Amino acid sequence: xxxxxxxxxxxxxxxxxxxxxxxxxxxxxxxxxxxxxxxxxxxxxxxxxxxxxxxxxxxxxxxxxxxxxxxxxxxxxxxxxxxxxxxxxxxxxxxxxxxxxxxxxxxxxxxxxxxxxxxxxxxxxxxxxxxxxxxxxxxxxxxxxxxxxxxxxxxxxxxxxxxxxxxxxxxxxxxxxxxxxxxxxxxxxxxxxxxxxxxxxxxxxxxxxxxxxxxxxxxxxxxxxxxxxxxxxxxxxxxxxxxxxxxxxxxxxxxxxxxxxxxxxxxxxxxxxxxxxxxxxxxxxxxxxxxxxxxxxxxxxxxxxxxxxxxxxxxxxxxxxxxxxxxxxxxxxxxxxxxxxxxxxxxxxxxxxxxxxxxxxxxxxxxxxxxxxxxxxxxxxxxxxxxxxxxxxxxxxxxxx
Length: 401
What we know:
Blueprint: E1 5-12, H1 22-34, E2 38-45, E3 55-56, H2 62-78, H3 95-123, E4 127-131, H4 141-149, E5 153-157, E6 187-190, H5 196-201, E7 207-209, E8 228-235, H6 241-254, E9 260-265, E10 275-278, H7 285-290, E11 292-297, H8 301-305, H9 312-319, E12 324-326, E13 343-344, H10 348-360, H11 362-379, H12 382-393
Parallel strand pairs: 1-2, 1-4, 2-3, 4-5, 5-6, 6-7, 8-9, 8-11, 9-10, 11-12, 12-13
Helix pairs in contact: 1-12, 3-4, 6-10, 9-11
């Protein structure tokens, strides 16, 4: 059987942009390669980045994207901030947002239409897969590609429910569904099972869940000395500031004998006595996980409260053999068994008790991490996800895979 070929449009390939989805995309694309997919990726933001697992095509609007981001950075600095922030609930579309969308419709969308038509003509893929590009920016393109080439066009939103209009996404990007038409796509994939109904309400003809996972070769236990007791890494505390206070701020003051560390940027709430480590390069992230006695999974409120909304972090921590303590997350028991493969706490008091118990009993912590990694190996690798993706696309896996 011929290797299936997929043309992918990615929000970004370059890890320097610090988009939360990009490291997960890399792992999924590697998983697709491992099951035999011939993958061609063209980035919406930044330059194409080559790898052993995919081929690339250029970004036709590279200069426009970088110029727009530079403008956003200037406007944010004028407001005395790092980002142009939106409200956490029902954010309104600003005049700047509407102007941006209209400019993109007139200038960017037509160039991407021509670019993708030329790529499909040359590559003849079995399917086109769009990875979390602002869906409104491609309005009209899926219909044209389907009518001209007769191949399925699929959208994968890896940030549901935060990407939905009622939350507006992260401050680093767009509110992607304003002005969008999900009905243009043959299939809308979602990291969230509970978000499927909302995607159908927004117009998707068909929506299916494809959860996050981990690459067990990248995320594996590292032979390093323990350097801290409780560690959390994340892209800021938007939508989880209350849990930052509950799992870090208050416990770090109560249990002063424990060493708390935070990796990442843009923590604006209560972090108590926690030490700030700054950004941690992705290539040393598994080492940072292994260097902590306990790793925190603090899921943002939209993902934690909409059932079955996966994020990358619990899978990555589990694959690394970490002892995980998590805030409540609706549906987490579908992926990991609370009490056996991770601990779920609901208050600062419960958090302190869990931390003290695991730090005092390293063998218990190690065993819980071992069980969590076994669960990943059995059910939650990106090879598992790649096979499901091909099933959903109706594209076969070559016999040699």
